Amino acid sequence: MKPNRLSLLLAGCLLAASFQLHAATASEDDAGWSLGAVVDVRDAGTDGARVLAVTPGGAAERLGLRPGDRLLAVNGRALDANAAEALAAAVQAGDGSLRLEVARDGRRLALSGAADRDALATATDACGRVSTTGAPPRVSENVYRARIYDIDGTGTPLGRTHELQAGTHVLLVEEGIDRHRFDPMQAERRDRTRTRLGPRATKALVIEVAADTRYQVGARLLPDRLDAAGIHSNSYWEPVVWEVTPEPCRR
């Protein structure tokens, strides 16, 4: 299994670092529309809100939205300091259509297409689990502990194991690599990078969760990226699934 590459604890309170758009539905008839993207709404301003990840095969990917884009407006509604509320309302207001204004590499782009129908209401009770427990293979695979602080745009509750409905999920992961794996200069650079990036130091990991399966998530250290450029760009690690095991799960 090779999932795609892809925590904010603030004063003991878990906050959503991003907002993946889906409607909270009670029945299929009430189902809304989904963008299929994880967007960091907390630093939204005149330059929009940063896209952290897109769901493979989802609406955002089909429209051409990419991680790193700045989402300026959805269906004609600008994203400002109240981006979370504006974003959710704008996606639903399109009634199945999406018109996105995006900033990318100094250019403004217009993307349009169909939204995804929210399928939460018709989901089965099949589930799996993602976890950061256990002892990752530090020596053999350079994999260390990680923290999952956001799943599908919702801040995770306290705990290191999370039960998820079977299907595709986007996890935002923070590395917890042992400090002794860095020499003093590398450790100082790493600290500066994490301070500078804040929640943007996390990376997205897309997992296709199968029923009755546990996925152990960790952070792999990339030794060939421990130079100044690699640490500054936060490319010295990657989130990975280091173990997949069967485990009964029913909701």
Give a written overview of the molecule.
The protein is α+β, with helices and mostly antiparallel strands and 251 residues long. It folds into two domains: 33-117, Roll (Pdz3 Domain); 121-246, no CATH class. It has helices at residues 59-63, 83-93, 138-141, 184-197, 228-232, and strands spanning 9-10, 13-14, 19-20, 33-34, 37-45, 48-54, 70-74, 77-78, 97-104, 107-114, 116-117, 127-131, 143-151, 154-155, 161-165, 167-176, 203-209, 213-221, 237-246. Strands 12, 13, 14, 15, 16, 17, 18 and 19 form an eight-stranded mixed sheet that branches. Strands 3, 5, 6, 7, 8, 9 and 10 form a seven-stranded antiparallel sheet that branches. It is globular. Mean pLDDT is 83; it is low at 1-30.
Detail the topology: elements first, then pairings:
Blueprint: E1 9-10, E2 13-14, E3 19-20, E4 33-34, E5 37-45, E6 48-54, H1 59-63, E7 70-74, E8 77-78, H2 83-93, E9 97-104, E10 107-114, E11 116-117, E12 127-131, H3 138-141, E13 143-151, E14 154-155, E15 161-165, E16 167-176, H4 184-197, E17 203-209, E18 213-221, H5 228-232, E19 237-246
Parallel strand pairs: 12-18
Antiparallel strand pairs: 1-2, 3-5, 4-11, 5-6, 6-7, 7-8, 7-9, 9-10, 12-15, 13-14, 13-16, 13-18, 16-17, 18-19
Fill in the keyword field for this structure.
19 strands; 2 domains; 251 residues; disordered N terminus; Pdz3 Domain; 5 helices; alpha+beta; eight-stranded mixed beta sheet
Mean pLDDT: 83
Look at the helices and sheets and give the structural class.
alpha+beta
State which percent range the strand residues make up. 35-45%
Low-confidence stretches: 1-30
State the domain count: 2
**Portion in helices:** 10-25%
The major pleated sheet works out as: 8 strands, mixed
- Tally of DSSP β-strands: 19
H-E string: EEEEEEHEEHEEEEHEEEEHEEHE
The total of helices stands at 5
Could you say which overall geometry the principal axes of the C-alpha atoms support?
globular
CA-based gyration radius: 18 Å
State the end-to-end distance: 25 Å
